[in-house]
Amino acid sequence: MLAPEKEQFSSYRVFTAIFIRDLTVYFRYRGSWINPLFFILVVITLFSLGFGADSQALRVYSPSIIWVTALLAVLLSLDSLFKTDFDDGSLEQLILSSQSLYLSVLAKILAHWFVSGLPIVLATPLISLMLGVSFEVLPEMALGLLLGTGILSFIGAIGASLTVSLASGGLLLSLLSMPLYVPVMIFGAHYLQDAIAGWPLMPSLSMLIGLLLAALVLSPLAIMAGLKLSVEA
Amino acid sequence: MLSSSIDPINNQLSAVTGLELNNISCEKAYRQLFSGVSASLSSGQGLHVAGSNGSGKTTLLKIIAGLSSDYHGSISWRCGDDTHPFIDKSDLLYLGHLTGVKSLLSPLENLTWWASLCLPAYPLGSEEISHALQQIGLSSELDTPCHFLSAGQQRRVALARLLLSQQRVWILDEPFTALDHSGIGQIEDCIKRHQSAGGIVIMTSHQAVNNSELFHLDLADYQQGPVSC
């Protein structure tokens, strides 16, 4: 009866080992978490400057602006998700490990989301201030981005796993991920619009939660296949 | 459910007892790299794959490790009386041309990560890990980020895995690259100890290896001209 417990323990141990190691690497290389945050703040600043004194128009378009910039920020950061591991051979060790690659992939994406998606969620007060969005919808905006950046990370990681062996796969990664990003974009922006207008939130919120759960369960399968293909090439 | 190939109590190697390569051929970019490679290894033996640059040594090692499925022929691993087309991954230590050492992490962090990934049945303490690093000659660099280390020292970080290994099959791609004479001697001894404990070693190297249990396989003998198509 001891054996199954031990096995569970070791899966948990591997998951935390990969998660902590990736976070350590990200924090030692500060660009990895400053870049997405910096990108989103700069783009939103440019938008508010571009709209000028027309604060009404800015308020109307703010849901789309927030979601487009968040989407692009996540997309830009995804290029590096598996790249360093591919370049130094850690990816081969991950694939040849007797531990479940599914869990390893989950740990890597979660660690990556901590430095790419989470800073965007934490910056929502600043973003809403810059775009003139009412502070009353701040919880809804943060929740939407929390779910949304998670979905974007999982889906984008499929593209990242397929393009990791290419010297400059950034453009291909965008082309692969964009069609899959469309539903997230639609429901995410819709959710924020509904919140601002004071309409019922459940339809778009449940779609976002559903998308996140589906991406959480299914995308690692595609990512595993993509990584094996990239290492073989 | 604990991996059947390792007996954690007696610290003994079990399971894989042999390897058969039958008529392995590989073709890349319309060029036949090698064809008809056959070999048979059993416990305590090893294979030294030699050949000029571009002859397909790394490709052959990747095929044996299961990282590449782009080949013809068959591989079978003997485990007692059974044979399997794939190796139980907990029994395989693969050290590729790329070593899997992260340059932003220290040798200690690198090896701890590898141990929790590849030796999950042995929760190793940091003492065992730092002891292995000291043995390989990195006692004063335990906490130095690896990008400050020389190429040979980084290679040693990866090779410290051999000292902790519980895997029965070692696949080593150019393990001696960038090592000095004493380092090469140390790894040769390590390989001999592994073989005398019943392990199997498959390696490539451009230099002669002094080991009677290591069969020499020169890929130049298995080359045929370009494929006509």
Secondary-structure topology with pairs:
The complex is a heterodimer of chains A (233) and B (229).
Chain A lengths: L1 H27 L2 H21 L3 H24 L4 H6 L1 H7 L4 H22 L1 H8 L6 H26 L6 H28 L4 H31 L1
Helix pairs in contact in A: 1-6, 2-3, 2-6, 3-6, 3-8, 3-9, 6-8, 6-10, 8-9, 8-10, 9-10
Chain B lengths: L5 E2 L4 E2 L2 E13 L2 E12 L3 E5 L6 H9 L6 E8 L2 E3 L7 E4 L11 H12 L7 H10 L15 H14 L4 E5 L7 H16 L3 E5 L9 E5 L11
Parallel strand pairs in B: 5-10, 5-11, 8-9, 9-10
Antiparallel strand pairs in B: 1-2, 3-4, 3-6, 6-7
Helix pairs in contact in B: 2-3, 2-4, 3-4, 4-5
Structure explained in plain terms:
The complex is a heterodimer of chains A (233) and B (229). Mean pLDDT of chain A is 90; it is low at 1-5. Chain A has ten helices and no strands. Chain A starts with a helix and ends with a helix. Chain A has one domain. Chain A is an all-alpha fold and 233 residues long. Chain A has helices spanning 2-28, 31-51, 55-78, 83-88, 90-96, 101-122, 124-131, 138-163, 170-197, 202-232. The radius of gyration of chain A is 19 Å and the shape is elongated. With 229 residues, chain B is α/β, with parallel strands linked by helices. The longest helix of chain B has 16 residues, at 181-196. The radius of gyration of chain B is 18 Å and the shape is globular. Chain B has a five-stranded parallel sheet with strand order 8-9-10-5-11, sandwiched between helices. In chain B, strands 4-3-6-7 form a four-stranded antiparallel sheet, covered by helices on one side. A two-stranded antiparallel sheet of chain B has the order 1-2. In chain B, β1 (6-7) and β2 (12-13) form a beta hairpin. The N and C termini of chain B lie far apart (50 Å). Helix content of chain B is 27%, strand content 28%. The interface between A and B is medium-sized, with 31 and 36 residues.
